[in-house]
Amino acid sequence: MSAPVSSSRVGVWLIGARGSVATTVVAGAAAVTAGLHPPTGLVTETPPFAGSGLPPLSSLVFGGHDTVDCPLPKRAEALAAGGVLPPGLPAAVAAELAAADVEIRPGGPAPGDHRTEDELIAAFAADIQDFVRRCGLTRAVVVNVASTEPAPAGRALPPSSLYAAAALRAGCPYVNFTPSTGLHHPALASLAAASGLPYAGRDGKTGQTLLRSVLGPMFTQRALGVRAWSGTNLLGGGDGAALADPAAAAAKNAGKERVLADTLGTTPEGEVHIDDVPALGDWKTAWDHIAFDGFLGARMILQTIWQGCDSALAAPLVLDLARLTTRAHEAGLSGPLTDLGFYFKDPVGEGPAALGEQYEALVGFAGRLGRSDGAGAQSGLDGSRRQGEPGGAGRLGGSGDACEQGDPGRAGLDGEER
Q: Which domain holds residue 340?
């Protein structure tokens, strides 16, 4: 018996709500809902997920945080001019973009903001809870799609962790689509465990690493020895500018390297270089050079070139994750959603690294969601029972009102996309 599809409205609160990825998410959800475009790239719209009880795209309500004030309709027009969105789409979904823009709140901390960490967390959480109440949402998920930040130094919480803590305080499940720290900060470990909320991440797997997670297992399965694996990324836009910072680039590359180490069983020679090319805008080119040995030591080379639009690759994954995570919350799951590793370079929890195995785990997860009655308990991948505690926000210092809905918004240091 398949799980019923809820007709309730669900919030998607985007951190970095006015960036390219977030704008494409909002415009894309509206376009698919209206039948203007097919759901290409949306894994959750394929047959294995039909009976999972996922919230329909038409039920999603968007809002979020950002540090810039460029309205979403204007941002969408710029993306259409750059070829990211189809011509005419911003005008066709102008009402939906405007509605989401109204729900975006100022992010931070901004220069000169002297609020304490707890004051910032409380303010962000209050924004989310207010959105849930005003829009009459049943639940909300917070998704970080902001620009990559450097790894933190010292004990201070970076912006991504402030937003993650706010999600927990508001009673919302959390997804980190970036390589930024988020819930990985040691200071948040006990809070995440006590919250009774599901969470997933980190760093969306959209291009070069997606290909690596397929090619790495191929070399292992065919007993071919990889001697070196080097790569270069050329990209522009906000992500290119953010990754021009060596510390931010190092955080990004860590996930790429982990995929090779996990699939090959060793770390080959070679590095990944990221170059900011502003003229490329939202488009990126990823080149890989793989040196490997064949039978009798024959030296061989494989080279790949991946050219794509980062926002168009990321947006359907963000929508998938929002739907899957809110359904997991409804089903009573808590803790790391290991079965969502299919979507990430550096997934939380222990799971397979090869894309094929990750997809099998994802489909199995979708099946279990479909069998859940939403009563508050669900079997985990390892057979354990997990009990959801949507009201756990009170233990984190919140008002006690569980944020059961949220909407898209996005906050980053510079308001740009992941």
A: 10-204+312-396
